Amino acid sequence: MKKPLALVTRPTQDCDEVAKELSSRGFSVHVAPLIQVEVISPKFREPLPVSWDEVDWVILTSRNGARVWSTVEIPATSSTSKNNRLAVATIGERTAEKVRELCGYSPDFVGSGERSELFIPQFLELVREGDKIVVAGACKRRGLIETALTEHGVQVFSWNLYDIVPSAPVLGSVSIINNAPSVLWTFFSGSAVSAYVEWRKLYSLPKVMPNWYFAAFGEPTAAAMRKHELPPCVVHCGGSYLAFCDLLVARFL
Q: How far is CA 113 from the centre of its chain?
């Protein structure tokens, strides 16, 4: 099989790492964001139904959440503070790196891997029944975490810092995709899969093409693909983007 053109569908601010890793492994790479991040202006953020000085933990679910969190002004609190700040937990080392870079401190807990499924059992070992936890991230994207914590007897409060919105590839990308001998679509979220489906309808393209292949980072992403009848040829359920890239190399190069 001829080496496919690898498409990175992550938001613009998040695609560089994966694109560089795929390129360094021998893929021809094209960045084609299918979703974008829209930061919610502070004046439009809903206030928490709990005082900040009652909060035991803040969970940051992504690097985008960490970027916005670094700009948030939180009143000084003594509830669970370390160095006069709230205790912060992150899903994965990459989000933790962004916290260190932008906030100037290290998170108090860093879950291994980059997915909620890996973070939850680790974090549950730290929390106590009745703890109050703020889950800060994208709108309507934190159901798995909130459900697990609530079942553990924890009080969970969602705080929307940004939203994920569709972003169809520009016309130039469409031409590149259509002219490639074969294409490898890499998906990292169900949101990107849904955006792909809408993009395909916009340009009246068939659901799948004989020379198109689909790879999923994480089982939830793969489940979204199957829901839309997009058969994933690769599903990576580990916690590392690097391992995902290695898996693609083993499959296609």
A: 12
